[in-house]
Amino acid sequence: MPVDVVVIGGGIGGLANACALSGAGYSVRVLERAPEFGEIGAGLQMAPNATRVLREWGLLDEVLGRGVSPRRLVLRDAVDEEELTRLEFDGEFTGRYKAPYVVIHRSDLLDVLVRACVRAGAELVPGCEVHDAATTDEGAVAYSGLGEHHARLVVVADGLRSRLRARFSDDEPVCAGYAAYRGAFPVEQIDLEPEALETVVGYVGPGCHLIQYPLRGGRMFNTVAVFKSPAYDRGEADWGGPEELEAAFADCGPKVRAGLKSLSLTRRWPMYDRLPIPNWTEGRLVLTGDAAHPMLQYLAQGACQAIEDAHCLATELAADPDWSVALKRYEAARTARTAHVQTTSRLWGEIWHIDGVGRLLRNALFRQRALHDYTHVDWLYGFNES
Description:
Blueprint: E1 3-8, H1 12-23, E2 28-31, E3 43-46, H2 48-56, H3 60-66, E4 72-77, E5 83-88, H4 91-97, E6 102-105, H5 106-120, E7 123-125, E8 130-135, E9 140-144, E10 147-156, E11 174-186, E12 199-205, E13 208-215, E14 220-228, H6 230-233, H7 242-248, H8 254-259, E15 269-273, E16 281-282, E17 285-287, H9 302-319, H10 323-352, H11 356-368, H12 378-381
Parallel strand pairs: 1-2, 1-10, 2-7, 4-12, 10-17
Antiparallel strand pairs: 3-6, 4-5, 8-9, 9-10, 11-14, 11-15, 12-13, 13-14, 16-17
């Protein structure tokens, strides 16, 4: 039967849209090609620009119960392991941004969103691969192996390699030449200092970095190692293997090298993004999340921006009965915002991974930052503050 909105893709972005739209009273159907709704990967950082939205949706307490509210974020040099700067998540921080900083396992956040969608009456359809979508006289239709799905609006949330993005742009995913390995293990299996269970720490080094923080109430510890692949630069098909991982971190400090032992080496994650595009709407089709703006991980904003998208789209649709106008307002607001985040994420990657004199200058500048100087995060965390 027709519904108000069909969402293509049941990841965090798709379910965030389904949650926002069904919570606003629209009938929503989510089509997910996988046989069940689930996420792979490890941890996510949720900054206040996203947790404010989660609180508005009534989900923040559940997210806090599943995750961890760290006390600080610390950046260190990966070679000498000296502290460069820190951001305290204290009362001044939460008062300024009116929401906390939370770290959570991807699968836990997805489960929170699934439950919220079910409570709001959204229809979740797994095992349903969509191969095309189009605008119709009455709205839009998604074509899947299970048949046609008619709606007033089709929201495309099928990720980095979105099949339907081709309707809006002929661009392709851009490989950064970096690979990541991840690991999340029970804390009793890892030798940790007490501060580690209260801190998000990032070690930034020449062509590599390591991120660590606790998950699931401090019962699990998350580690991510990212490095530049010489084999990729040489044009080799097989690149980013464990041997390159070890070589990339060989000159780093002992804590960083010890952190590599907390990784799972069974899967590597190549780092991709795409260039910003100005057009996200075609009739009653609209892009969202990674289908619209996949970004590199240096600002930890991928999921956060998808949640911002969902909030904005639901707000615009509810505010204007002419959905064609509402979609263009959504497009104008979100393309500008996410393009800024995408390009800044690339820039921060270059800053993190610089070597030589550049590294010395970066370290000196970071050390000069005052403890409560929010100059470089106000635009990100304070966005659309209410």
